[in-house]
Amino acid sequence: MRVLFVCLGNICRSPTAEGVFRRQLAAAGLAERVAVDSCGIGSWHVDKAPDSRAQQAAAQRGIELGELRARQLCDADFQRFDYLLAMDHDNLAALQARRPADCTAHLGLFLAFAGEPDRAVPDPYYGGEQGFEEVLDLIEAASRGLVAELHRRLEAGRH
Fold first, then answer.
1. Mean pLDDT of all residues in the chain?
2. How confident is the model at residue 128 (pLDDT cuts 50, 70, 90)?
3. φ, ψ at 153 (rounded to 5°)
4. In the chain, where are the structural domains located?
5. pTM, rounded to two decimals
6. What InterPro entries does UniProt report for this protein, alphabetically (predicted)?
7. Model confidence at 159: pLDDT above 70
8. DSSP 117-130
9. Helix (H) or strand (E) holding 29
């Protein structure tokens, strides 16, 4: 199973989701069964580390993001991943516009896994530190829901 988190520049929301989700997968004993990555729609921050504010907020919760590097969405991602999860409606529209006809991956908003199918993870880039805390809270909730879904799917595949 492979999951890709997608935001605009891959320096705030999607790397935070990658880090949080990796930790929750490990806690659930699924780290070896689910591959995780993140990317951005745009190319502005390729090869850059996550925003220092995102790193600091995550570190306060015991999540290390400093080793991650931004990358841009590529066409192969639509075949490589089972889930391409957008942080907001604009990111989702960009994914849908680029989706190849033969793509069978699930494309959707990440917060659907927190029971909020139409809600976006707000971009904290231009705001204060509280925005990064809110993003973490939302991502943690959605990650719990996604871990539960993947656990069900993986267990169903064993029978």
1. 96
2. confident
3. -65, -45
4. 2-154
5. 0.97
6. LMW_PTPase, Ptyr_pPase, Ptyr_pPase_sf, Tyr_phospatase_low_mol_wt
7. no
8. TTPPPPP-TTS-HH
9. none
**CB contact at 8 A, 114 and 142:** yes
At 106, list the tokens. Answer: 């699930």
Looking at residue 44, its amino acid is W
At 158 the pLDDT is: 67
The predicted-structure confidence for 15-59, as pLDDT tens digits, reads as follows 999 999 999 999 999 999 999 999 999 999 999 999 999 999 999
How are strands ordered across the β-sheet holding 2-7? Answer: 35-40, 2-7, 83-86, 106-109
Question: Are 132 and 53 spatial neighbours (Cβ–Cβ below 8 Å)?
Answer: yes
Amino acid, res. 4:
L
- How is residue 48 annotated by DSSP? P
Residue with tokens 């990658």: 18
| Six token digits for residue 68 | 């991650």
How far apart CA 74 and CA 37 sit, in angstroms, is 12
What is the pLDDT at residue 68?
A: 98
* Structure tokens given for 83: 């889930």
Q: In the CATH scheme, what architecture does the domain 2-154 have?
A: 3-Layer(aba) Sandwich (3.40)
